[in-house]
Each structure stands twice: as structure tokens, then as C-alpha cells.
Amino acid sequence: MTFFQQIFSGFTTVIQEVFLAMAPIVVIFVLLNITSFKLRKRRFWNIMRGFLITFIGLVLFLHGVNIAYVPVGQHLGSTIAALENNQILIPLGFVMGFLVGFAEPAIHVMVKQVEEVSEGRVRSKVLLAVISVGIGLAVGLSMWRLLAGFSLYYFLIPGYLLVFILGRKVDKMFLAMAFDNGGVATGPMCSTFILSMCVSIASQIEGRDPMTDGFGVVAMIALTPILSTLALGYIYKKKEERDQKNRLAIIKEEVE
């Protein structure tokens, strides 16, 4: 297979998948514009150009992920698993998870919307760092599970129990935000690079089954950003309570 054949291999499939994903949204928008929106022509065609740019960007991004991140993840996983000191997988997994989470496009969209809706109360940079730390912890724990052979239940069941406990101690905004963060964290970057790397590592480690030990990292990535966001919400709530007590104490002193 030549260089250009490798680059464009599967390109038409990605185009079809993105077209099928975007077509219903475009059709619904056009129908609603005819029946109710009735935007000006200039505004309408600006939005349609935005759809076209989104289509091209998604095709190029997803195709790049398929031809680059998946094979790189597989090769990197095989190389790391062959090292004598496998314990390095745990800190290395945390670093990789953090960086992949920091680069995930869906997370950037999410944190920007949170900052806009909360009117700057929740900073996008802070939330991005918190989610990335959560993803790093997920990958690091997944590497530990690969080495020790733990069942996924030992992480998921206590993790979600902790989610429900923390969920009762934070504002509703952070609770809703936390579960959305868990969803956007499992985007194409994590689902391709991290998953392929973990499956490759599991296939190289003696006594590990790629089907039962390699998979499950995406479930961990969906859990830990929820916990890290709820922890941030708990910190915010305690800070607000402390500030309110200080204000009341100052008012009381002024009255006396």
C-alpha cells in the first residue's frame, strides 16, 4: 500500500458517517427555518456555511484520529508493556490521560459553555484542569487494574456510590454539570488512543485477557470526571458558606 493509499484509506467511510450524523440536524434546522424561524437570508446562509465548515472539520479530525491515534496507541501500548518495570505504566497512564483530556475538543466546548452560562462563576480553565485530572486518574487506575488484575466492579461500584453521596452535598448546577462532563470526557481522543493502548497492553501482559482486562477504561473515564467535578462543586459550596459567614460576622460587628 502506497503512502497516499494509507492516508486516504477509510476516508469515504468517515465522510458517510459524518454525513449521516449531521444530516438530520441540518434538515430539521431548514424545516424549522421555513415554518417558524424565518431568518434573514444572510443569517441563514452564514449558519449553513457553519454547518459546512463543521462537516469538513469533523471529517478531517475523525479521519486523522483513525489513521494516527489508533495505530500509535497500539504501538505505544506494546512498547511500554514490554518494559521490565511495568510499574511505570501507572504514572505514565495518568500523564497520558491528563494530556488527552486537555486536548479533547468536546471538553473545551463544554467548559466554555459552563463559563458563559455561570457568568464567570466557574472558570473554564479551572474546570478543564479538574476534568483532565479526573481522566488522568481514570487511566492511571486502569493501568493499575491491568497490572494487578482487579475486577472493574471494585472501581465502578464504590465510585458511583461516592457520586450519589457527593451529589447530595453540591449545588444542582454542579450535579448536572458533573454527569455531562463524564459524557464529553469519553470523546474520540480517549475512545481511540487510550482504549487502543490499554487493549494492546493487556494483550502483552502475561495472564491478562484483552477482552476483560483491556476494555473498561472508557467506563473509568466516564466516572472519574464526575467525581472530580463534584469535588470541585463541594469546594465551591464550602467557600461560599465561609464567605457568607464572614459577611454576616462583619455586618454583626458593624451593628454592634
Structural account:
The mean pLDDT is 87. The protein folds into two domains: 1-71, no CATH class; 83-255, no CATH class. The relative contact order is 0.11. With 256 residues, it is mostly helical. It is built from eleven helices and no strands. The protein is flat and about 80 Å long. Helix 2 packs antiparallel against helix 3 and helix 8 (172-185) runs antiparallel to helix 11 (217-255). The chain is 85% helix and 0% strand.
Helix content: over 70%
Structural class: mainly alpha
Number of domains: 2
Radius of gyration: 23 Å
User: Helical region count?
Assistant: 11
Broad shape: flat
Head-to-tail CA distance between termini: 85 Å
Low-pLDDT regions:
none
Classify the beta-strand content into a percent band: under 5%
- Mean pLDDT across residues: 87
Largest pleated sheet = none
Helix-strand string = HHHHHHHHHHH
- Tell me how many strands there are: 0
